[in-house]
Amino acid sequence: MPPSLINEDILINATNFETRVALLENGVVQELHIEHNIQQSMVGNIFLGKVLRILPGLQSAFVDIGLDRSAFIHVSDLRENRNEKSQTNTTIPIEKLIFAGQHILTQVIKDQIGTKGARLSTQLSIAGRILVYMPLDICHIGISQKIQNEEDREALKIKIQSLTTGQKGGFIARTQAENATNEDILIDLKYLNTLWNRIIASTKCHNAPSIIYQDLDLAQRVMRDIVTSNTKTIKIDSKQTTTKLIEWSKIFNPSIQHKIQYYGEERAIFEIANIDQEIDTALSKKVKLKSGGYLIIEQTEALTTIDVNTGGFIGGKNFKETIFKTNLEATNAIARQLRLRNLGGIIIIDFIDMDDQYHKNAVLNELKKSISKDRTKTTIGDFSKLGLIEMTRKRTRDSLISKLCEPCNVCNSNGMIKTTRTICYEILREILQESKQFNPKEFKIIASQKIIDMFLEENHHLSNLCDQIKKPVSLIVENRYNQEEYDIVLL
Questions:
Q1: What span, in angstroms and rounded, lies between the C-alpha atoms of 223 and 433?
Q2: Domain that holds residue 438
Q3: What is the spatial distance between Cα 431 and Cα 489, in angstroms, rounded to a whole number?
Q4: What distance, in Å, lies between the first and last C-alpha atoms of the chain?
Q5: pLDDT tier at 4 (50, 70, 90 boundaries)?
Q6: What is the pLDDT of residues 107-166, one digit of tens each?
Q7: Which of 23, 349, 404, 407 shows the greatest Cβ crowding within 10 Å of its Cβ?
Q8: Contact 81, 75 (CB under 8 A)
Q9: At what angle do helices 182-203 and 239-252 cross, to 10 degrees?
Q10: Whether the predicted pLDDT of 305 surpasses 90
């Protein structure tokens, strides 16, 4: 669908403990952003850090920036190397650039994910609405890759060069710069200079480790990064947040001020477009397709697999046509789920096998077209010999499931639990083994209602056991126990 035909609406559910943002395209939820006020993203924050240890073999270093886990920096993220590589295409070893105990000004470029600490860079950048300023970089002008027309890129580069004459550091023009006036760019430039001067002043009165600059909160980042000319409305269910965003827009983006609206209706804002229901779907493995087919999405730490199935779909003229239509429908659903769930890293897609090369090409092209709307960088390969498509999507923040869920104590993160019959047989074996070592008067089984019901329904097993060990066995229900929990008491 051409960008001009996409109508975007942004819904913001803001409370004093959490902010949730939903991006709707033509009434359908495409992206979800959630930030807990006690777990705000660190990306963009600038810290005065202390180097703890150099790892020459990995060309990395651990840095204390005051978080619960040490952050790390790779040699490629040191500004000296970025500047050197752009001129001579060589890399200086990390042990020649920094040393243990050194205080360095760093910026978080990737949040802590799982057991990995935050990733840092000394190539500092400050994002405005139109420009990204890199004050410590060599003087240069970069243009966003999303501005693809070469003539437009060159004209924009010349314009920004003329407006930043005499300015130290480098600049990158964001996509918003394409339609920005000279006045807009100068306002953004003034804001970035003021911000950088405050950061420099702050470093002089802080000791390492300490935070020097904190990036915008989620609602403000949405105003800066997500709102486009396609955005029709920005609805917020908090008067305080609405006022804050209007004041922010007056300074940094006056053109969007009229789009910001306070939502004060009794119906919860996320009930629009059934967003809470969409969140539940995005946390499950199975995603139903309208045709009757479905996706199975399995997420692991290393990669994500997506399996496409026809399910109950029999709508095609023949079996090949049914498979083709299911795969075509799946491409749009996959692109949407990648954005909804914020899946990153390596992604393997197992479409239903197709023999027709025309069908394969059509499915691959439709997948690329659907994913082209994604703001996050992706790369898509061709069909492999095994009929799989491999792709990557840049990790920018935690996935939705890791943000909202935790490992299951019942199944030990296996995604499955033992059946009631399996547990009952385990109990019988354990009692049999205990009877050989001890000589109690009675055995007592304490377990969940389902386990006790199974023993009662198939009581011949328990009866045979009692005859075998020549001891009585009693049953007690403990409603607090899950299906796999039980105790065997010897009396």
A1: 66
A2: 420-490
A3: 10
A4: 73
A5: low
A6: 999 888 777 889 999 999 998 888 999 998 888 899 988 787 888 899 999 999 999 988
A7: 349
A8: yes
A9: 110
A10: yes
CATH number assigned to the domain comprising residue 127: 2.40.50.140
State whether 425 and 373 are in the same domain: no
Q: 67-94: per-residue pLDDT in tens?
A: 888 999 999 999 887 665 556 667 889 9
Residue 6: half-sphere exposure toward Cβ, Cα within 13 Å: 17
CA distance 368 to 3: 16
* Residue 415 located in a structural domain: no
Q: Is residue 408 in a domain?
A: no
Domain count along the chain: 4
292, 325 contact by CB (below 8 A): no
Q: Which is more confident, 282 or 396?
A: 282
Which pLDDT belongs to residue 375? 81
Quote the pLDDT of residue 314: 59
Strands in 82-159 per DSSP E:
103-110, 119-121, 126-127, 131-134, 141-143
Phi-psi region of 27 (alpha: psi -120 to 50; beta: other; left: phi over 0): left
Identify the pLDDT of residue 407.
Answer: 78
Range scoring the smallest mean pLDDT among 36-45, 158-167, 378-387:
36-45
* Residue 337 located in a structural domain: yes
pTM recorded for the entire structure: 0.71
Q: Tell me the C-alpha to C-alpha distance, in Å, between residue 481 and each of 20, 63, 421, 424, 452.
A: 34, 44, 16, 14, 12
Cβ partners under 8 Å of residue 14, min gap 6: 20, 219, 236, 237, 238, 240, 241
Task: Specify whether 209 is located in the same domain as 221.
Answer: no
CATH number at residue 30: 3.30.420.60
Check whether residue 177 and residue 50 sit in a common domain.
Answer: yes
Shared domain check, 387 and 252: no
